[in-house]
């Protein structure tokens, strides 16, 4: 038997072909959408997945303002952070976050939590682009639309 057939194949920068995808968040549940987006960013949908390498694709999420949360999560889910000072724990809800800042932070926070917590995860997060409306400046990359 040929022992060369048992070698593990890893992808490198020269052989990697990154693609662009568009995901429409209109009327989609936040967690289900975020997990699929995280899989694409990580590259787990590709046959050449390598866990220690950025082999994922670029993802553009549009219509982030029309995302759905099930149950009472708009008012009862809490995002907790700490300022670093004594008594500096702050919490906010998705509804406040959408009103005060933008609904794109809700999707970004959910996807970031599903990526690795290391240098690779921070690098993968830069491949995510979230927009509130249907327009985005990435038409030149000819992104393919994905139905989730």
Strand content: 15-25%
Task: Tell me the name of the CATH class of the domain at 16-69 and 104-135.
Answer: Alpha Beta
CATH superfamily of the domain at 16-69 and 104-135: Ribosomal protein L13
Number of helices: 5
Protein architecture, described:
- Helix content is 28%, strand content 16%.
- With 148 residues, the protein is of the alpha/beta class.
- It has a domain at 16-69 and 104-135: Ribosomal protein L13 (Ribosomal Protein L13p, Chain: A, Alpha-Beta Complex), CATH 3.90.1180.
- The protein has a four-stranded parallel sheet with strand order 5-2-1-6, covered by helices on one side. It has a two-stranded antiparallel ribbon with strand order 3-4.
- A hairpin with a 6-residue loop joins strand 3 (79-82) and strand 4 (89-92).
- The model has no long low-confidence stretch (mean pLDDT 93).
In summary, what is this structure?
Helices cover 28% and strands 16% of the residues.
What key attributes describe this structure?
single chain; 148 residues; alpha/beta; Ribosomal Protein L13p, Chain: A; four-stranded parallel β-sheet; two-stranded antiparallel sheet; 5 helices; 6 strands; 28% helix; 16% strand
Write the layout of secondary structure elements.
Blueprint: E1 20-24, H1 30-42, E2 58-62, H2 73-76, E3 79-82, E4 89-92, H3 94-100, H4 104-113, H5 119-125, E5 128-130, E6 144-146
Parallel strand pairs: 1-2, 1-6, 2-5
Antiparallel strand pairs: 3-4
